[in-house]
Design goal:
The protein is of the alpha+beta class. The protein has one domain: Trna Endonuclease, Chain: A, domain 1 (3-Layer(aba) Sandwich). Helices cover about 40% and strands about 30% of the residues. The protein is built from 3 helices and 5 strands, in the order H-E-E-E-H-H-E-E. It has a 5-stranded mixed β-sheet. It is globular. It starts with a helix and ends in a 7-residue tail after the last strand.
């Protein structure tokens, strides 16, 4: 049985989004590394969800949610309250494996990537409030 054209288009769009996401994440990793951070994990998956990037610097664990869109503003709007809760829970799951557990120094950032590939990092951008 052959796929319907609409299904093929959806599969193609999904593949394009996947590769665009990988490219955006690679740009963000380079940006952090240029500021002395050490890359640890990409698309780290826990039981609750996934964290796009995990980096370290001087004992600090940084969890990064990467959002790509036509503009920084549009990218920033793509983070829902449900997604924030999932990111926090997944980050807590990650640090539970650390020697200091939940006492580990950690930060939750958002990295925005626009259509031109420019990167804007918003440190500590996710708040539980």
């Amino acid at each position: 049985m052959t796929q319907m054209p609409q299904t093929n288009a959806r599969v193609h769009a999904g593949r394009m989004a996947y590769h665009a996401g990988l490219s955006a994440e690679a740009s963000v990793i380079r940006e952090y590394e240029s500021h002395g951070y050490v890359f640890e994990a990409q698309r780290w998956r826990g039981q609750v969800g996934e964290i796009d990037l995990v980096l370290r610097k001087s004992g600090l664990v940084v969890f990064v949610e990467v959002k790509k869109s036509k503009s920084f503003e549009r990218a920033a709007l793509r983070i829902s309250p449900t997604q924030k809760r999932r990111i926090f829970a997944t980050g807590e799951e990650f640090v539970a494996q650390e020697p200091q557990g939940l006492l580990t120094d950690m930060r939750f950032d958002v990295a925005l990537v626009d259509a031109a590939g420019a990167v804007q990092i918003l440190e500590n951008a996710l708040s539980e409030g």
